[in-house]
Amino acid sequence: MADNMTIPSLRRNSFSQSDTAILEALVPGYSLIYGFFSSYLQIDITGYLQYVVLLAVFGASLKYIIRYVTNFLERYFVSTAEIRLDDEIFNYFMYWMSRQPHMKSTNRFVAGVKTNGYWSENESDDEDDEKGMDELDEPGCGEDEPTFDEYWAKLIGRDKYRTLRYTPAEGRHFFWYRGRPLRLERREQLQSTRYILNNETLYVSCLGRDPSIIKDLLNEAQQSYVERDGNRTVIYRGQKLYLGRPFQWTRCMARAPRPLSTVVLDHEQKQGFVNDIKEYLHPRTRRWYSNRGIPYRRGYLLHGPPGTGKTSLCFAAAGLLGLKLFLLNLDSKALDEDNLSSLFSELPRRCIVLLEDVDTAGVTHSRGKTIESSKDKDKTDDSRGNTTEEPEPEPEEKKDDSKPDGDGVTLSALLNVIDGVAASEGRILVMTTNHPEKLDAALLRPGRVDMTIAFGYTTTTDIKELFTSIYTTMEGDLPRIAASKHTSNGDANPATNGSANHVHEKRKAELEEKKRQEEREQQMRMDERHAWISELATEFASIVPNSEFTAAEIQGYLLNHKNAPDDAIRGTELWVRGLREKKRSQEKHLT
């Protein structure tokens, strides 16, 4: 009786043959599954098939639901900052991130030793060198003081292993900042052809609609990035890093500022150059320019023989005023008008742009004389009795040299960038040249070049100052005075051991007095050496001829005897004769 009731029920819930065929086509093996459940488990799966279909539909749509909910929450309940690779804040953040403690525990990171925007080109090398020099400068106890061979072996061993840098890998990373969870997503742009080198974007997110925690993080990253340079002068170079990419300013290095006193130039000229820059950078000067409709720009031309200190003066001024230095080579054939305009538009408001040896760039050369002026010259020569006719001007003289044969920037583009309607304001332009007569007059007119400084050969005063600066003992040249070292016995239990504490204080006072005595003796030795060097400088200046040699030539000779001023004095006459003969032979070869 029960069997008779069950069979109709199964038949009532079973699908027809056509329905079963459709299910067999959609779900391969459906007949076997149905036979297994109905025969062995006495379960008719056709009664639950609609629930299975609903579950499958829900599973298929679940990922879309999650994506929609996630996008909704991120849009209205999450704050996100986007950081792009072509912006300097990218370097700030990655530098800060690479030095956070949680980077040591992450299991997904990018490891490398290649220098890039987050670390200056010589950052790790400078740190290692300073550590090694500190070890060599540590005051020892006689024979225990490290020798050069020991220091050098240790430094060379350290150089074999370059410092590893770790940054977050591509994907999502979670970390804590000031007690709040943050998310970093490093994403590669799909249209980029090379990973990391071109298009890459960072996304920093936090819960809540208040993004102040992210702004605080970015401000801290910028501060840590800038403070690592200290008072060093940061140098950028305009260059094309990758094929197909435009020119951009790339950080090269950060160097210690050069004292203005080490630049061999007349004191009034040096001070006038610096004072003119200070006057230009003063806030009231900008208002004065703006009120009168004058473009707020300043240009300088430093000219003179090579090795006279033109670039050194520019670098020293940048260090004195704390300005960034931007170097650009106009002779690059890959540099065109668009790239030049883009580079100048990206300059910060207060900086120094240095164009070195502009006379070597054909674009800045004088456009020459016209055909009429050449004919006039021929007539003048004929009137003086010359029987030989001058040849006709070459066709090249008709051509405007402002546009070179190949690719590159034109003179018109350079002038527009320097002093055009759309030219940037607030920057300081410094051009150096060995031959100012080769430069086009349009480049030198007031408004583009506002001050010209001529560098010449060294005078007697310059020679004495150069000799003194080379051999005078500086504070950093001397080994440091040993700090007083305390024994731990006196600090172990001062309350219960009064006599030991008394001995400790007495020993501390003796060490401090000894240190002061060493400092006084050291200062006396420095004063005596300074007086001796002054006498030698006068003698050296009497041997070296006035206004004949450059500062670089004299400095190169003195550096060969940097620890022996007596030897430098004894060999000066021979060096002067040799250098004169070398110059005469060079002049004879040129003629």
From TrEMBL:
Catalytic activity from the UniProt record: ATP + H2O = ADP + phosphate + H(+)
Ranges where the record places region Disordered: 119-140, 365-406, 483-523
Pfam families linked to this entry: AAA, AAA_lid_BCS1, BCS1_N
Family affiliation: Belongs to the AAA ATPase family. BCS1 subfamily.
InterPro entries: AAA+_ATPase, AAA_lid_BCS1, ATPase_AAA_core, ATPase_AAA_CS, BCS1_N, Mitochondrial_chaperone_BCS1, P-loop_NTPase
Domain BCS1 N-terminal: 53-263
Transmembrane segments: 21-42, 48-66
Domain called AAA+ ATPase: residue spans: 296-459
Protein's organism: Penicillium argentinense
Source species, domain of life: Eukaryota
Protein name as it appears in the record: Uncharacterized protein
Main localization of the protein described in the UniProt heading: mitochondrion
SUPFAM superfamilies xref list: P-loop containing nucleoside triphosphate hydrolases (SSF52540)
UniProt entry tagged with the keyword Nucleotide-binding: yes
Compositionally biased intervals (Acidic residues): 122-140
Phylogenetic classification of the source organism: Eukaryota, Fungi, Dikarya, Ascomycota, Pezizomycotina
Keyword vocabulary terms for this entry: ATP-binding, Hydrolase, Membrane, Mitochondrion, Mitochondrion inner membrane, Nucleotide-binding, Transmembrane, Transmembrane helix
Cell location: Mitochondrion inner membrane
Biased composition (Basic and acidic residues): 369-384, 396-406, 507-523
Membrane topology, as annotated: Single-pass membrane protein
An example molecular function term from Gene Ontology annotations: ATP hydrolysis activity
Biased composition regions of type Polar residues, renumbered to the chain: 485-500
Assigned GO CC terms: mitochondrial inner membrane
